[in-house]
Amino acid sequence: MYFLYDNAGIKSKQYNIMLIIVEYFAIIMTKLERINAFIHVVEANGFAAAARKQGISTPAISRQITALEASLGVQLLKRTTRQVALTDIGLQYYQHCKNALTLLSDAEDAIANSRRDATGVLSILSNRHFAFAHLLPRLADFMQMNPKLHIQLQLAERFPDLSQENIDIVYGVSQEGPPDLVRRRIASTKYVLCASPSYLKQHGIPRTPADLVQHAYITHSMRKPLDVLIFADGRETYLEPALWLNDTQAMHECALQGMGVVKLHEYEVAESIKENCLTVILPDYPMPQISVYLYYRQSRYLQAKIRRFIDFYME
């Protein structure tokens, strides 16, 4: 079946489509205004404070919330004379709205950043060894390529809360991070057990994992668990640590001073082993390979400063 329109009919049809589009966008904008008012009330913890922030009257913002609740068919806020509290469904709705607005903001930032150089502050947390061995030697080149970008580097052996601490990238960690973060594998390593020749001369060389219970064990206070050794064959040996430290360089130094047996990443003690300052013990009982990662927050639209760092260092 064919439909024939004269010019007047075509123009009329186009006008009707435009009206539908305008009405549709008006509905969307009204909904967004109500959602925005809802978020302001929640975060300001009250209607009056939210109204002042938006520059409107308290009754006006109250009407927006009432209209939003009516359109959804649920109560989002519990109102009292002193405070405003979220209902259970209100909390879920607030979280979804915040996530949606964050995605929208990230998308706008990504578009803006793609049109200009990486700017702002890139905050990185790295363990000491990876910073000195891999990050710092190339940092000058990276900064020269991104002259408008400022770098904030923290050296620490912990896993931070990236959102709370406003950290963009965690670099060179073997710990498993939260599942909501993106991780990129940058290396692999394994732990080795070692002690100084002077310590082994005084206390003897352990021949089996069971022999370790007779030795002083130096461990890292961030390890979970910190009192067990797991070998590649699945064997587990539980030890009572003699010394806890929160820094691998300090653990390394204590081992060099003959204070006990230490478990450190192979790359951290390679030089000391090569120079016979430390001796690998139980070489017939190796530990499993583990991965070293780079972590960053998940985002559909990755900021230019983070993307450029990852691209540069993943080469």
UniProtKB/TrEMBL annotation:
One of its GO terms (molecular function) is sequence-specific DNA binding. Transmembrane segments: none annotated. CDD domains: PBP2_CrgA_like (cd08422). It comes from the Bacteria. The keyword Transcription applies. The keyword Transcription regulation applies. One of its GO terms (biological process) is DNA-templated transcription. Keywords: DNA-binding, Transcription, Transcription regulation. Residues 30-87 form the HTH lysR-type domain. Belongs to the LysR transcriptional regulatory family. This is HTH-type transcriptional regulator DmlR. The lineage of its organism: Bacteria, Pseudomonadati, Pseudomonadota, Gammaproteobacteria, Legionellales.
